[in-house]
Structure formats: structure tokens, C-alpha cells
Amino acid sequence: MKRIIKSVTLSVLLTTQTFAISLIDEAKKSGLIAIPAENKVLNKLISNPNNYMNQAKLTLGMMLYFDPRLSKSGLISCNTCHNLGLGGSDGMSASVGDKWTIHPKHLNSPTVYNAVFYTRQSWDGRNPDLEDQAHGPIQAKPVMASSKEYITTFINSIPEYVDRFHKAYGSTGEIPFEQVGHAIAAFERTLVTPSRYDDFLNGNIKALTQTEQKGLKTFIDKGCVSCHNGIALGGTMQPFGLLTPYKHIEAGSFRGDKNGMVRVPTLRNITETAPYFHNGKIEVLPEAIKEMGRIQLGIELSDDETNQIEIFLKSLEGKKPSIVYPALPASTKKTPKISP
Ligand code: HEC
Ligand code: HEC
Predict the structure, then answer these.
(1) Mean pLDDT of the 40-65 span
(2) 264, 309, 312, 313: residue to mutate for ligand 2 pocket, most atoms within 8 A of CB
(3) Are the beta carbons of 251 and 281 closer than 8 angstroms?
(4) Per-residue pLDDT for 2 more than 70?
(5) Nearest ligand 2 atom, CA 254
(6) Under a CB-based contact definition with an 8 Å cutoff, are residues 153 and 283 in contact?
(7) Do residues 312 and 225 make contact, with C-beta atoms less than 8 angstroms apart?
(8) What per-residue confidence (pLDDT) applies to 1?
(9) What tens digit of pLDDT does each residue of 282-329 get?
């Protein structure tokens, strides 16, 4: 009797192992890629040859990311809308910027975590990389409403900032506007969040529970991977409302790029970044999953399938880099005064 139980347990164990091993293979074949476990490999992947990273630049970029004085009001920093404590987003359907302005296209603030892995930045993919993107929000009226002139005067009025730029860039003299966005982008490149899912793809078959593995299988089998792939499980330009129009398409004027393509958002940390879609009109994850099935794949996902996918998506919650809120250098007599 004991022997039978033993051999049944062994065969169950073997089946679960075989399932996990072939699932890893299937996931990789369908285009899913893990965040590399080795720091050296990861560092190479997140680097930009035109924006070399050093510790001085990363610290400076982090300070600027948190500095609200880069905005006209003196109140709004990158972290206001891309809150690193809130999954890199702000939890609102549309972002709210200078003078409490709701985004004119009713666009939701996307997360900055893992954005480094995208092939294009912004919902319509207009920016090729983080360096190009970072100059936009500082100057955009409904966002931070500042200007190149203001930013250069501001930075150059604070000796500690000037000194930090010189150290980061090995430069001397006035700090140009472009370096501000570049330093911020260097910091953003480090906002990567490895999860148990990565451990699983990297070969640790116990890193995901059997239920999560089943969810991953459903995610692959249903075809979500045709757009949510790569390291970010997103990041490329794809059609939206491919088979049926999105049910909240009327909210806001966003219709994708000139060809109607939309940059696929990452699914990493998706449980932390509700509400969903470019206009934030869907509040809960199961509804977002079902809507995707309907509009992108032309299928009605059952409650059970939706639940399986949701359980898998939860395993994409990653470990955030630990960040100490920076002490920012004080303004000086030369710093432009902010008057409300
Ligand atoms: C008022 C809210 C707000 C502020 C402040 C803000 N952003 Fe954004 N951010 C947004 C919104 C909304 C979008 C999407 C805009 C679009 O796609 O046209 C966005 C897009 C992005 C993206 C692209 C991410 C993706 O998924 O494509 C990055 C990166 C980013 N912002 C970084 C920054 C940085 C760096 C700062 C500070 C210099 C900043 N943002 C300030 C609201 C904000
Ligand atoms: C044909 C490409 C395509 C397929 C297939 C697809 N998606 Fe998407 N997905 C997108 C695009 C594009 C968006 C962004 C749409 C928007 O907000 O305008 C998106 C958005 C999402 C979002 C919301 C993300 C956020 O941050 O707001 C979730 C969740 C999601 N997809 C899950 C899934 C699941 C689960 C499946 C499979 C059932 C799936 N998707 C299939 C392209 C696709």
C-alpha cells in the first residue's frame, strides 16, 4: 500500500515537473522573456550608449525626478503622476497637472517601472526612448508648464546642482537644459522590477504555484502573448479595438498614432496600477481582461479563464528598487521666485 502511494506521489510530482518545464519552453517560444537574473546582463540591457550611467548621474536623476521645482507651480514633480510608491502611476483615470488641469485627451498616467524595456514611449509611441520623452512633461502646459529658460536658470542658480551635473558629466560651465532630461532618464532606466515570474522563466520551476502556472498557460493559449510579449509583456505598437471597438472609446479624444496604433502597456505590476486603459475607464482587472478578450481576440473569456489569467498577472508584481526620498538642495537668492 505504502509503495503504491509513493509511486502515485512520484508520478504526480513528475507530471507537475514536466508541465512546468514544457510551460517554460512554451512561454519562451511565444516571445516571453525574463528579466535577466545576472546584474551584468541586465545592466547592459538597460543602458543607453548615448547616456552612460554612473552613480553621480543616477543620484542626480533621482533628485530631479522628485524635485517639484521643475514645474511652474513648484508643486508638481515627475513623482506626482508617476508615484514610485503607487506602482509608478497615480491611481487616477486621467492625469491632473498644472492648475489642476485634467489631461486634454483624458490620458491615464502610465507606469514608469519597466518602461525602459519598451520600443517606444507614450500611448501613441511618439518618443523613441526615455531620454527623448523626459523633456516633454517639463514643458507641456497641462503637465508641469515650465520652460527651457526657467529650468536652466533654476538649475544654474543652485551650486549643489551645478556641482552634481559637473561630476555626473565630467563637464564644466553652464548646465544645458538637455542634461536635465537625460539625468532623469538615466535614473528611470534603473526602475526595473524582477518578480517570481522571472525566477520561473529563468528555470526555478517552484517559483510559480501550480495555479499561477495554469494562468500563464491560459494567457499563452488565448493569444494575449501575441501583443503582450518581450520583457515588459508589452512595449510595441499594436492595433487597439482590433475586432470590436473598446467600450469606452468615446471618453477622451485619443485614437492612437496616425495609423490608429497604440503602444501596448506593460502587464508587470498591473495589480498596482488601476484604473486601466489609456483613458482609465476600466477600474478592475477582471473587467480589463475580459474587455481585451472581446476587443483584441474576438472571444468571450469565461469567469474561470479570467480568474486564471488574473492569478497569473498577480505573479508579475515585482520587487521595486529601494529608494530613499532625497534631500534636495535649497533654493538660493538667484533662484527664480515662484508666485502663485
Ligand atoms: C501631470 C501628470 C504627469 C507629470 C507631472 C509627468 N507625467 Fe509622465 N506621463 C503622464 C501622462 C498622462 C503620460 C501619457 C502621455 C501620452 O502618452 O501622451 C505620461 C507618459 C510618460 C512616460 C511614457 C511611459 C509610457 O508608458 O509610454 C514616461 C517615461 C514619463 N511620462 C515620465 C515622466 C517624467 C520623467 C516626468 C517628469 C519630468 C513626468 N513623466 C511628469 C503624466 C505625467
Ligand atoms: C492585438 C494586441 C493585443 C492583444 C491580443 C491583447 N492585448 Fe492587452 N492591450 C493591448 C493594447 C494596445 C493595450 C492598450 C490599449 C489602450 O489603453 O488604448 C492593452 C491593454 C491591456 C491592459 C490594460 C493595461 C493598462 O495598464 O491599462 C490589460 C490588463 C491587458 N491589455 C491584458 C490583456 C490580456 C489578459 C489579453 C489576453 C486575453 C490581452 N491583453 C490581449 C494589446 C493587446
Answers:
(1) 97
(2) 264
(3) yes
(4) no
(5) 18
(6) no
(7) no
(8) 60
(9) 999 999 999 999 999 999 999 999 999 999 999 999 999 999 999 999
In our burial notation (b when 16+ CB lie closer than 10 A, e otherwise), range 19-55 reads ebeebbeebeeeebbbbbeeeeebeeebeeeebebee
Residue 9 pLDDT level (bands cut at 50, 70, 90): confident
Q: Which three cell numbers stand for residue 62?
A: 533621482
Which atom of ligand 2 is least distant from the CA of 288?
29
Can you tell me which atom of ligand 2 is nearest the CA of 123? 18
- Measured N-to-C along each axis, helices 177-188 and 130-139 cross at an angle, to the nearest 10 degrees, of 120
C-alpha 255/C-alpha 333 separation (Å) is: 46
Sorted by where each starts, the structural domains of the chain and their CATH numbers stand as: 31-38+193-314 (1.10.760.10), 43-188 (1.10.760.10)
Q: Which helix (H) or strand (E) holds 96?
A: strand 96-97
Nearest ligand, measured from the Cα of 246: 2
Q: What is the mean pLDDT of the chain?
A: 96
pLDDT tens for each residue of 217-252: 999 999 999 999 999 999 999 999 989 999 999 999
Compute the average pLDDT of residues 50-62: 97
Identify any residues that bridge with 96 across adjacent strands, giving them in sequence order.
Answer: 102
CA–centroid distance, 277 to ligand 2, in Å, is 8
Nearest-angstrom CA–CA distance, 334 and 161? 13
Q: What is the mean pLDDT of residues 114-128?
A: 98
Tell me, what amino acid is at 275? P
Give the 3-state secondary structure of 37-67: CCHHHHHHHHCCCCCCCCHHHHHHHHHHHHC
Å from CA of 319 to ligand 1 middle: 22
Looking at residues 70-98, what average pLDDT do you find?
A: 97
Ligand nearest to the backbone CA of 69: 1
Among 228, 242, 290, name the best residue to mutate to test ligand 2's pocket (greatest count of ligand atoms within 8 A of Cβ): 228
Which ligand gives the minimal distance to the CA of 264? Answer: 2
